[in-house]
DNA sequence: GGCATTACGCTACGGGTCGTAGCGAAAGCT
DNA sequence: AGCTTTCGCTACGACCCGTAGCGTAATGCC
């Protein structure tokens, strides 16, 4: 959310229903029109609000779509499936399911592209979308260490680099498979991918120590 | 290129200089303005051609930028560095160097985002950008098999799936590292990544047979 | 209740870009 | 020469942008 409730106590409060209606209308427009043909006037009409109301809450198309897409990732969880491999497969399948939805496909890559020239937008994406994914990696790693499937890493710097690497490999591979190669990240693919990743990490910690 | 020389023999030929000027102007505008603020009228002015000339050769912004960005990937090669690990590290560093350029960063993700709703554009990207990268994977794999670093794969279907997986992992990880995480894919990162990938593939072929 | 304050819906506007049509001139080929 | 295609240029309607202005609605504070 744009989250602006710092010290405003008096006056008419902002309609929370308008927020949800606007974000839902944004996703609807993303599905029907895609990023490039999406206009803020159309979104406002779909949401049943005035165009000026939309501009009072979001600075522009970029910020609006980031918030609309971010809500899709709220459902990401890390269920305990008993083993590291199963945990990874589960969360990767969830991630792939989200990326398979057209409102995510058309919106996510577009805002990432815009963020290459807009640091504030990049930070917004990091805070509302990427961080949630990163936490799953950290949580999965900690759980695997408790299980004894991964050795504890004493060096915090090395641990951070490894987590970053895993994150880029996992998220990047799924995104590339889905959006560039245009093939589904189905169960068979996820199994192969998880196998290579885990074997690589295991061999690394075995011989790298 | 847009490649339209099927049967036109008579009449004034199209200026080849205009093509290169337009594509160069497109990359220049991508650096200065980014994808969203790039306008075809501005590109035409930069290139010193009329706007109508530009529209006669490209259907729109998407196709133009794909061609302009595609030329950046022409320099991709697979130099023989003696080992599979060194070959991979070399080509990944080349790929990362291209993605570090601002004209590639702002343009590539944007056209990929557009391609999620445009099959013809997706095919254009595949033919002019992705295929070249895929060939490097195939060539590297064949070279490693000649060296004996990778076992020959008798099943062609399984071999194709493995190559697809490697391709998505490599390209996806580099792209995600560079454009989403916003951190450089420098030599240290590439070395760590290559190590995990190769160990994973080696263990897979060792135990998977 | 009355008042200040903020949000809302609506209309209207200048500015910019789009993509195309139409024209005369230029540059090739036969 | 004559034919054909491209080029540069101008002009145009259409669309979207982002904002200003106004009257109205909904809250908190006195």
UniProtKB/TrEMBL annotation, chains A, B:
All copies of domain HTH tetR-type, residue ranges: 16-76
Protein name per Swiss-Prot or TrEMBL: Transcriptional regulator
Coiled coil: none
Pfam families membership: TetR_C_11, TetR_N
Organism: Streptomyces capoamus
Keywords for the protein's UniProt record, in alphabetical order: DNA-binding, Transcription, Transcription regulation
Gene Ontology MF terms in the entry: DNA-binding transcription factor activity; transcription cis-regulatory region binding
Binding region for DNA: 39-58
Stretch forming the signal peptide: none
């Amino acid at each position: 959310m744009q989250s602006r409730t710092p010290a405003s106590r008096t006056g008419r409060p902002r309609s929370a229903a308008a927020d949800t209606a606007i974000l839902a209308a944004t996703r609807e427009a993303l599905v029907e029109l895609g990023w490039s043909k999406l206009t803020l006037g159309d979104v406002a009409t779909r949401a049943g609000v005035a165009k000026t109301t939309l501009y009072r809450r979001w600075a522009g198309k970029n910020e609006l779509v980031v918030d609309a897409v971010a809500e899709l990732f709220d459902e990401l969880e890390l269920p305990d499936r008993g083993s590291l491999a199963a945990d990874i497969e589960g969360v990767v399948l969830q991630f792939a399911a989200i990326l398979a939805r057209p409102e995510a496909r058309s919106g996510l890559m577009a805002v990432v592209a815009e963020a290459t020239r807009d640091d504030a937008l990049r930070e917004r994406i990091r805070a509302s979308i990427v961080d949630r994914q990163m936490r799953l990696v950290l949580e999965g790693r900690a759980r695997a260490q408790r299980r004894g499937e991964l050795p504890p890493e004493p060096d915090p710097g090395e641990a951070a680099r490894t987590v970053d690497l895993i994150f880029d490999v996992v998220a990047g591979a799924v995104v590339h498979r889905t959006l560039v190669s245009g093939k589904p990240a189905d169960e068979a693919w996820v199994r192969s991918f998880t196998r290579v990743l885990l074997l690589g990490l295991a061999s690394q910690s075995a011989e790298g120590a």
